[in-house]
Amino acid sequence: MEPPAVPTDRLDGWERVERTTERPFTAGPVSVTAGTVRYERTDRPDPRPFAFASRLRIRPETPPNAALTGLVERRARSGFRDRLADRDIGSIEIQDQRTVAVDDPEAAPAALVTYRGRCVLDDARIPIEALIAVWEAGEYLLAGGGYRLDRGADEARRELLSVICGVRPD
Fold first, then answer.
1. Which is it for the CA torsion 9, 15, 19, 23, positive or negative?
2. Domains of the chain, earliest start first
3. Does pLDDT of 25 surpass 90?
């Protein structure tokens, strides 16, 4: 399954490191398949900034609705927290929740959650901020990533938000 489109003009300095298709949820006849692409800033020190974009396919096909959107958002946030833990980011707490407009005029606004945590690297505890956005654009899209808070965080946040908001289904 193809991941959503990520604007290449916003990926200067980013390197694609992974492209996957996985089935994060199955229950009886219902399944969710995710096509995901992940990028890293290879020119930065560890832990490197990362970004991802995912397209969800729900079977049987179900049009987006309020109940389904709430379920997708909760599952996406839970899965993202697990991914952060897999990257050795602990003490993860929600910092902010808000709605943001994405660049696609046909898409609904995205529900954006900001997390803060710490990554242990060489006995140092490095503060990390991570974002995940979930929205509907005829299908469900997810985008997010994370970066260090100890230097250049404002620029890293702006850059990641630009990538997130530029993701499109086509």
1. negative
2. 8-166 (3.40.1000)
3. no
* Dist CA 97 CA 153 (whole Å): 18
The arithmetic mean of pLDDT across residues 3-16, rounded, is 95
The single-letter code of the amino acid at 19 is R
Structure-token pair, residue 2:
């193809």
CA–CA distance, 156 with 141 (Å, rounded to integer):
22
Token pair recorded at residue 29: 């006849």
Given a contact cutoff of 8 angstroms between Cβ atoms, the answer to whether 146 and 127 are in contact is: no
CA distance 76 to 91: 19
Query: Across the chain, where does the E strand assignment appear?
Result: 14-27, 30-41, 50-59, 89-100, 110-121, 124-136, 140-148
Task: Please tell me the distance from the alpha carbon of residue 59 to that of residue 154, in angstroms, as a whole number.
Answer: 39
Each residue of 108-124: pLDDT tens digit?
Answer: 999 999 999 999 888 88
pLDDT at 109: 97
